[in-house]
Design brief:
about 500 residues, mainly beta
Length: about 500
């Protein structure tokens, strides 16, 4: 759709009708109609100089139900109409005085339907096949203002770039620099050569101390941050190198690889990543022992032409944690199988402080095993925790076993789920004398839950047995509240 409007606009610019009438209002309406839709309203004002060497418009705004969320002001285009007649869009400079984004857009309530054309299998990578060659010598935005409501941190920056696209190949560059605080610079450049199918990519993002990333990420001391991604390979077997530094010291390094094993659009594309390093300075001192001086993230899988995705292996290893897993996703990222297992422990058998918010939480050992098989609509989960201690509560041994069904992950079927959970706790101390008097040394319980999309959450059974006292309850939980039915009982047969 956008490509068709772009081509129509170019024809209009070159047509005699526009030449005679300088019909800027026609172009305003054409562009507004192409970009507006659903909850998005685009308005362009002050379009002038359509045929001159310099065209301009006063403003472009994008609005939703809460008003304007993006505003582009004082845009000037220095271009050649004669080159357009030769099927070349020659732009010597494109300049915007300012771009203002006081907030993010509201979530869209209307989603455009996917057409059959959009559902066709993936095609090999190429630069966009535009109806004309494009050469933008200079792109400049003097001021970019991002409001604090966008991501909790306001900033002002400027940007410049360039682009050349022709015959299915080209190159482009973009640089964004912060101008209102600590140094912040984002630079992206890339090129693609059609004959050799070679893609070059270089991304650099760097900030001084107290920058956006360190502040929003809550990194201790808000250190300087530098990220680089660099690669130049045929896209049939592409390799990119990744490096992350803080305060000038390496934190994570590694590679990401993709390979096409056959004809484009017919064969799967494999992918793999392996990143490692010492990230302890990125965490508060009390949590640094959890990760230790060496962390490793590795994964491999493949993407099918129809959109299906298989994660053959996933592994995360650090000083106190090890996770492994795999997954298979159908087209549309609907899970078919999921498997995740892991362990948290310390080689010296010392208590492990978990990196959680709130009061300190210690364990000596945690084992987990989670699985899902869509063909059976079945999920399972098992957690074993040893020597749990948090805010005066301690449990020597805790076992949670769960299973149930999940149906309706595809958009055609209403979503529904069930859960059956069995709980066993040994040597339970709740840190309150009155509560501890209600239970013996062991606490057991079970829970049966049912939920269906559009219906209340139903707790068919909630049972806890502390040896001295127990609880039996059921509940129907709706949006405004819950209807609870239960009883406190002395030891005996469970209802």
């Amino acid at each position: 759709m956008i490509r068709a409007v772009f081509f129509t606009a170019l024809l209009a610019l070159a047509s005699p009708a526009v030449a005679q009438n300088d019909d800027a209002s026609f172009l305003e309406g054409l562009i507004e109609g192409a970009l507006s839709g659903g909850d998005r309203d685009v308005v362009i004002r002050g379009f002038s100089g359509v045929l001159a060497g310099q065209s301009r418009f006063d403003s472009l705004t994008i609005s939703d139900a809460d008003g304007v969320w993006l505003e582009v002001l004082d845009v000037e285009l220095d271009w050649s109409r004669l080159a357009l007649l030769r099927r070349r869009l020659q732009v010597d400079s494109l300049t915007a005085q300012s771009i203002r984004m006081p907030r993010g857009p509201l979530p869209m309530t209307e989603v455009e339907p996917v057409t059959e054309e959009e559902e066709t299998p993936a095609e090999p990578f190429t630069f966009p096949e535009l109806p004309v060659a494009v050469n933008v010598g200079e792109l400049v935005v003097n001021t970019i203002e991002i409001g604090e409501d966008v991501f909790g941190y306001g900033l002002t920056a400027r940007a410049d770039g360039s682009a050349q696209i022709a015959d299915g190949e080209g190159q482009a560059a973009l640089t964004v620099e912060r101008i209102d605080g600590p140094l912040g610079r984002f630079a992206l450049s890339g090129d693609f050569v059609a004959d050799t199918q070679t893609l070059g990519l270089n991304l650099t993002a760097e900030e001084d101390e107290g920058g956006l990333v360190a502040t929003l990420g809550g990194l201790p001391g808000a250190p300087s941050v530098a990220l680089t991604v660099d690669g130049r390979s045929p896209i049939s077997n592409y390799v990119a190198n990744i490096s992350l530094e803080t305060d000038g010291a390496p934190r994570l390094t590694g590679q990401v690889e993709t390979a096409l094993n056959g004809a484009p659009g017919e064969a799967p594309r494999t992918f793999a990543a392996r990143l490692g390093g010492d990230i302890t300075p990125l965490f508060l001192p009390e949590y640094q022992d959890f990760f230790g001086p060496a962390i490793l993230l590795a994964l491999r899988g493949q993407a099918e032409p129809d959109g299906a995705l298989t994660l053959d292996a996933f592994a995360l290893e650090a000083q106190s944690i090890a996770l492994t897993g795999n997954a298979a996703l159908a087209p549309g990222f609907l899970p078919e199988t999921v498997s995740l297992s892991g362990r948290i422990s310390d080689a010296s058998d010392d208590p492990v402080l978990l990196p959680l918010s709130g009061p300190e939480t210690f364990v000596s050992d945690v084992a987990l095993d989670i699985g899902f098989v869509a063909a059976d609509d079945a999920w399972t989960a098992r957690f074993e925790v040893a020597d749990l201690a948090r805010d005066g509560v301690s449990v020597e041994g805790l076992l949670l076993d769960g299973s149930g069904i999940v149906r309706g992950l595809d958009p055609e079927t209403p979503l529904e789920a069930t859960a059956t959970l069995d709980l066993t706790g040994q040597s339970v101390n709740l840190g309150d004398a009155a509560l501890d008097d209600l239970i013996a040394d062991e606490l057991t319980g079970d829970l049966d839950v049912q939920w269906r999309q559009g219906a209340p959450l139903t707790i068919e059974r909630l049972a806890l047995d502390g040896g001295i006292y127990g609880v039996d309850a059921s509940a129907v939980i709706t949006d405004p509240g819950a209807c609870l039915d239960g009883q406190l009982r002395r030891p005996g047969a469970r209802g």
